[in-house]
Amino acid sequence: MKALPLVLALVLVASPALGAVGPGTGDPADASNGTTQVQTSSNGTVRVLDIPDSAVVRSTVDAQHVDLGPSLDFAGLRAGSQIQTLSSLERIESASDEGVRQQLILGEINQIEQRAIALQSAQQNAIEAYNTGDIAARELLVELARIDAEARELNERRIELREVATQTPDFSVDPGRLAALERELDTFTGPVRKHAASVLTGDEPSTRFFVRTSADGLVLSVISDETYIREAYRSDLRDRDQSGVTPTEALDKVAESYPTIWNNRATQNGADVVGAGNSYLVRVNHGRGQLFAYVDSGSAEVFKEAQIRPLDTVSNGTVATEVKDGLRLSANRTYPGGPLRIQLNETESGDPVDANVTLGLEASRESTFLGRTGSDGAIWTVSPASRFTITVIRGNAAVVLTVSPTPVPQLATNETQTNETTLTPTSELSTDSSVTSKRTPA
Predict the structure, then answer these.
(1) Domain DUF7096: where (predicted)?
(2) Nearest Cα to 431, choosing from 299, 304, 269, 305?
(3) Which of 32, 135, 300, 301 could potentially form a cystine with 139 if both were Cys, beta carbons 3.0 to 4.6 Å apart?
(4) CA 429 and chain centroid, separation
(5) In terms of domains, do 125 and 259 share one?
(6) What is the pLDDT of residues 313-371, one digit of tens each?
(7) 335-359: b or e for each residue (b if 16 or more CB lie within 10 Å)?
(8) Structural domain span for residue 384
(9) Are residues 351 and 253 in the same domain?
């Protein structure tokens, strides 16, 4: 199976809705020119942090590609940040006495904290501009990628300052303060944003990104390198005026919210928590990939998450099928922004078929060319948030399948868990924190 190829061409297709499946149902819809079938999988549900349907303002799936403007901006941002870091370190190292050196270190940390506040405003302003239609999804992704890049550079500076502080005699910076700053900078970074920056700069191929927003929330997802990547942020689930959650309580909250993931975490390094200040990061390695869940110390709620899942671990979900002209077209239906697998086979032999695939929203009736199914007959993309039509054409044969996404598997409270296998993960996240706790399965 292959992920979505690099195609940006738009094709207008006026295709009749020949088969439809309502969200959350297992019943086939009427089909005027074919046979639509639905099959439900019983695999365990991997739950996700999402925006309530009633709060959604905008949702879209757009192809993004290399862009010289943002690419130059990102390069300039990185270079400027690195120069500033080197300049700050040089001033500190050349300080006339230890007292001046200490004040310079504290002053630099103060500046990073102030920039974190500015990034919070910039992120919220970008979401609001997208919600009001002042910017398109592309501009939103560019701004989020820029914020992500700056937050990563600021964290590198924080690490350098921590090292300089440890080398300063009779001086130390509260490790809780530094860890809290790291968690705050985490608020503005994510694997999808980082991938968007790589696409815009040409380091990664063009692909389709899912974007979903509310007044104070954001969901992003993408498929890259045979991997489904998703991140979500809900500022309405934060309470910065309160604090009191312990590391153990943060672990318990994640266990309660993600029962399938928690019950099937890896036997070693299955879960750990790092944090200080107003949030904790809980990292879980499980049978279908990795989860990074952020628990707010005030609200005791998961307010941010990132999930990384190899496509070969994704559940089949609810399969909708249309048969016509000797072709069997199947779609593993999923939730808005979820991993959508499209499969094309010969009806009699079952052999995979290589053919062109387009996907269009039913409302606009405009279809985007996804690419070809390839030798295995499969192609992956991220699911739109509303009813959509998949059209496949091979020679004189054509098959059309219209379906709706399934409901989002929202975070659980106290539900029965199901079993999964284990998977050895990798992580680029830092463990720099004043509090670290680990938990492995019994």
Answers:
(1) 2-203
(2) 269
(3) 135
(4) 15
(5) yes
(6) 998 778 999 999 999 999 999 999 999 999 999 999 999 999 999 999 887 777 889 99
(7) bbbbbbbbbbbeeeeeebbebebbb
(8) 319-403
(9) no
The amino acid present at 299, given as its one-letter code, is: S
- Is residue 178 within 8 Å of 164, Cβ to Cβ? no
The Cα–Cα gap between 329 and 52 comes to: 31
Rounded CA-CA distance 36/404 in Å is 13
Query: By C-alpha distance, which of 146, 168, 147, 148 is closest to 89?
Result: 168
Per-residue pLDDT reduced to its tens digit, 358-411: 999 887 777 889 999 999 999 999 999 999 999 999 999 999 999 999 999 999
Maximum pairwise Cα distance, the chain: 84
Residues 122 and 234 in one domain: yes
Strand pairing class (35-40; 10-11) = unpaired
Q: Name the residue with tokens 């500046």.
A: 111
Provide mean pLDDT across the span 192-208.
90
Q: Which residues pair with 274 in a beta bridge?
A: 281, 436
Question: Would you give the end-to-end CA distance of the chain in angstroms?
Answer: 35
